[in-house]
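User: Teach me something about this protein's shape.
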Amino acid sequence: MNHHDKRMEDPRYKIANKEALIGTALVIVNFILWYGFAYGLGSGPVEEYDYIFGFPAWFFYSCIAVTVLIFLLVILAVKFLFKEVPLDEEDEK
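Assistant: First, the predicted structure itself:
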């Protein structure tokens, strides 16, 4: 059995691939929300900005609210979607 076949049979690689996809999805969601709020709300004239806690709304939503949301999503993803897997080498039979 070659190294590639052995890796395909190891269930840890399947788990690692799934968790990598979840991480990538979270990064994409973070970027879309950040970009949408930053350029969606911050593209008008400065005189028309709304302010939340002294910050322009675009900054508050894109940099503060989205960061808190992504932290929560990462915590939930790790708690409910990620699995604990041993990283030790399996014994050869």
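Now, about its shape. The mean pLDDT is 89. Helices lie at 3-9, 11-41, 57-80. If you'd like, I can walk through any region in more detail.
User: That's plenty for now, thanks!
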